[in-house]
Design brief:
This protein has helices at residues 2-31, 36-55, 61-91, 97-109, 123-130, 179-188, 192-199, 217-220, 222-229, 345-348, 351-357; strands at residues 115-117, 133-134, 144-148, 154-159, 165-171, 174-178, 210-215, 255-258, 261-265, 268-276, 279-286, 291-298, 301-311, 317-321, 327-333, 339-343, 366-372, 376-381. By secondary structure, it is of the alpha+beta class. The strands form 3 sheets. Strands 8, 9, 10, 11, 12, 13, 14, 15 and 16 form a 9-stranded mixed sheet that branches. A 5-stranded mixed sheet has the order 2-1-7-18-17, with helices on both faces. The protein has a 4-stranded antiparallel sheet with strand order 3-6-5-4.
């Protein structure tokens, strides 16, 4: 009788074990937010349980084997594909058609030894789809960069334009910098020679090719890369983004504003772009001179903005300057005037600004290669040894 009960229990457990395992997975997915390593451990644990049940003859050998293989495979797919993709998507870089086509083009049209430099967010995609070396990605954004270079031992804080502070350490003939500060500096500086001097060290040995991506998503991340570019351990910064309580750097942002309305003003047209309570940017368009001039309206007071970039009727780009304007910085208007971008002085002439908004006009060491939907712009860095 006992033997019959034991066999009956084995039959029940054998029949219900796969469903119990699936139920556990459903509960975990519903109520727990696991990271990639926890998912991998869960998959291995399920495979182990399956093997144990099989050894006890409580689960069919084929079912147990299939269950183990399935969950380990799912765990590995999550670890190496779904997790990196989701992580990058959360950071603001999404693999849309423009990104996919850009990375596919890079894969097919640039030398295999090339390095592709940009901010860290799309690094995984560049490696996986573009099959090219990157400066850093989500897994290496905090990594240091070291090269052989003689110099007196010690930490040096180099000061550059736009408030940039670049930390360099020399020790035993090794020069060390932070990758995130290197690339942030190339984005923020107005000195393209400084940018190229940093980028040239990231070339692979025996390869001269290095490319640079300017992408639209970097505008919304400018507070971060300007913070890292200006960071120094002895600095009292002004940046308070992301919960920073004791800033060691400054941060500056591009203000993207949409058209709120357009009204006639005599022979001119006033375009209004709301910027918050009691504040708006205005563009005054003079059709006779085909000219735009930007203003800041604040608490019913009107202030002139120093520079306005706009496109004329024939499509030419014009930078209109008011030397004695009350507000520093630049307002950039697109061809339709549906969107404007205000830039403070610290980033109005940054390398990134020139690459993203002006297609590299005025730069000599960044050669425009290709554009995908005005979202991703690829440049070849020209390095003269």
């Amino acid at each position: 009788m006992k033997e019959d009960h034991k066999k009956a229990a084995q039959v029940i457990v054998k029949a219900t074990a796969p469903f119990a395992i699936c139920l556990i997975i459903v509960v975990v997915m519903r109520y727990f937010n696991l990271d990639m390593f926890q998912w991998l451990l869960l998959g291995i644990a399920i495979a182990g349980v399956s093997a144990g049940l099989m050894s006890l003859k409580l689960m069919d050998r084929k079912v147990a084997g299939a269950t183990g293989v399935f969950f380990i495979s799912v765990s590995l797919i999550f670890l190496f594909y779904i997790y990196p993709s989701g992580y990058i998507a959360q950071s603001g870089t999404v693999l849309n058609d423009n990104w996919f086509e850009a990375l596919k083009w890079i894969n097919e049209n640039t030398p295999e030894c090339s390095t592709v430099a940009t901010y860290w967010d799309p690094g995984h995609f560049i490696r996986a789809i573009g099959n090219r070396t990157v400066v850093f990605d989500g897994g290496s954004q905090n990594h240091l960069f070291q090269i052989n270079e003689s110099g007196p031992d010690g930490l040096t804080i180099e000061n550059y334009d736009n408030g940039i502070t670049h930390l360099v350490q020399h020790k035993n003939g090794i020069r060390t910098t932070a990758r995130i500060q290197d690339i942030s500096t190339t984005l923020m500086t107005s000195n393209e020679s400084l940018a190229v001097d940093i980028l040239k060290d990231y070339r692979k040995s025996g390869c001269d090719e290095i490319y640079y991506i300017a992408s639209a998503d970097l505008m919304s991340k400018s507070a971060w890369w300007t913070y890292f570019a200006t960071w120094a351990p002895n600095k009292n910064g002004n940046c308070r983004v992301g919960g920073i309580t004791e800033p060691k750097g400054d941060c500056y942002s591009y203000s993207l504003l949409s058209l709120s309305g357009a009204t006639p003003n005599g022979e001119s047209i006033i375009y209004t772009y709301s910027a918050g309570q009691n504040q708006a940017f205005l563009l005054n368009y003079d059709p006779q001179q085909d000219r735009l001039q930007a203003y800041l309206s604040e608490n019913n007071n009107l202030f002139r903005i120093k520079q306005t970039f706009y496109f004329t009727k024939d499509g030419s780009g014009v930078l209109y300057t008011v030397p004695d304007a009350e507000v520093p910085g630049t307002v950039w208007a697109d061809t339709t005037r549906n969107i404007i971008i205000y830039m403070p002085p610290q980033i109005e002439n940054a390398v990134y600004t020139k690459l993203m908004l002006y297609n590299g006009v005025g730069l000599e060491k960044f050669e425009f290669v290709k554009d995908w939907g005005s979202e991703i712009k690829l440049y070849k860095v020209k390095i003269e040894e």
